[in-house]
Amino acid sequence: MVQMRADVLVVGGGLGGVAAALAAARAGRSVILTEEFDWLGGQLTSQAVPPDEHSWIEQFGATASYRALRNGIRDYYRRHYPLTERSRGWTDLNPGAGWVSRICHEPRVAVAVLEQMLAPYRGAGRLTVLQPYRPVAAETDGDRVTGVTLAHRDRDDRIDVTAPYILDATETGELLPLTGTEYVTGFESQAQTGEPSAPAEAQPMNMQAVSVCFAIDHVDGDHTIDRPADYDFWRDYKPDFWGDRLLSWRSPHPRTLEIVERSFTPNPDDDPLSVNADQRLNPGDGNLWTFRRIAARRNFTDGSYGSDITLVNWPMIDYFEGPVIDVPNASWHLAKARELSYSVLYWLQTEAPRPDGGTGFPGLRLRGDVTGSRDGLAQAPYIRESRRIRAEYTVVEQDLSLAVRGQHGAVQYPDSIGLGMYRIDLHPSTGGDNYIDVGSCPFEIPLGALIPQRVENLLPAGKNIGTTHITNGSYRLHPVEWNVGEVAGLLADFCLARGESPRAVRGTPRLLAEFTDRVSAAGVERRWPQIAGY
Asked: Could you tell me one molecular function GO term of this UniProt entry (predicted)?
């Protein structure tokens, strides 16, 4: 078995993992970064989820390195894509002119930019990327993790890696059970958290739906896929709270739970520069085609794109039949989630009601080349909710709920190490819950949420921080995951330099002041200006 060692081991190459590796490598540390799938970038790339971001993202409320990623994506389009002169001059270029984000784009562009950001450290020998590898075992010594065993996804190869600091940036907190780190899953009870939206009894197996996304365009010809084996089941499936069959244009409005009907118009002749992607004003999901559109053909010179490309991450692909964490049949549920996505596509191609009174859009074409997958769907499932560490501080609903905090704004933490903003947005769950969607104040990220209650050298670097089922709904999005990972990488370096533990950094005023100064110097914003939530 191959043995490797580094100052910092980052397991998981999603947005948090890449940010952590960058932060530690920039500080001069040797870093090993692992990733199970073919692309780095997690929810932004292999999971094919365009960025979900707050209304002020172009002005403030993001780290300098996350802003560099966004600027890099726009620059990549300007350098390499046949943009119209009008779109090329669009300062806040939105390549897809999608309504969900001010920078909807094709996943592989983000892959290219992330690789560019990492390239200098790989070239210098400071960063080693192990791909595709996943963690399968770990060694511990008391309250410390001493090493992690990684297995190649496609071969029998295994690698043992040791490091003084190990960061868990996996999508589901895979290192937590492997290392014996205390964690929670699912819905905590109101008695445990005091949260207004929590149930009376804890529900550890009640987790948000997962989704397997896919990209489509609409061109001449019949591109109908083979009828999925489970199509009849999904076509007739009608959740109690849905108001119709899952495969329909009707579903609950996340904020009001009123049953609403959405439209679907492929390739509308709209002006990309007229799209105002501000979820404070409009959730943007009225026309599902433009909701998560990632390539607007009118942004490009005539003939470059025969069709828009849109990303299907819609209510009807949410799979909530069972959890995929800490259950023996997780792979079965993930397979069923993929089957649901194929069934949605087949329904769109053959039975979906059209505005002209007909049914089916056979011109819809699955674009596996856009998602980089052999089977046409996203390489990885979009997992909204991870295992979460039992942390020194757990963020609860009443810390940031607009209904609770009102004009006072979210709680300001003395150990703030970043910012975020997103509504408390919970999709239907494996416990049978409908949407839970609560207004949020612009919030801070407390360092205490990154520190396990017992384990000394394992740090979360993604969605596995100390949030609850409810507050995870706000903390799970792209800019926050990046911020968490970046600060985890900075914290590992800071602790190595001073011979102190993360717990001591938070618990010692002098060290905490030094560390927060270091965080600020790295371009991480720690306080919001006076603005109202939504």
From this structure: L-aspartate oxidase activity
